[in-house]
Specification:
With 112 residues, the protein is an all-alpha fold. Helix content is 59%, strand content 0%.
Length: 112
């Protein structure tokens, strides 16, 4: 299916470009979460849907409908991932999405 192949290529290009800009993103993001809620990746250099959502948040895109459109998923999916992840952030994190926007700035997000 051509559309499916194009979507896979988009995700691959997004993941590669984003991780090239923010190579410590996955580790820093996981340090904001409780130990049992940390997110693993299927293959090195790739992101899960949940990590892609927060990668877009890191880039300043916070509107749920916009994120859903960019990732070709439902608004409910984005909302559910965001809610679940916020509930499973470490108690000292505070506003998870605000901290995500600091990832890559000399480790500020993980230390704050």
């Amino acid at each position: 299916d051509v559309r499916s192949d194009e979507l896979k290529e988009f995700y691959h290009n997004f993941d590669t470009t984003f991780l090239g800009l923010f190579p410590s993103f996955i580790g820093e993001f996981n340090r904001l979460l409780a130990d049992d809620a940390r997110i693993g990746v299927r293959r090195p250099g790739s992101l899960t849907t949940e990590l892609r959502i927060f990668a877009l948040v890191r880039l300043g895109i916070t509107d749920t409908a916009t994120i859903a459109a960019l990732l070709h998923c439902s608004i409910r999916t984005v909302y559910n991932y965001r809610s679940f992840t916020q509930r499973h952030s470490r108690p000292d994190v505070g506003d998870l999405e605000q901290r995500v926007q600091l990832i890559g700035l000399n480790g500020i997000a993980a230390r704050s």
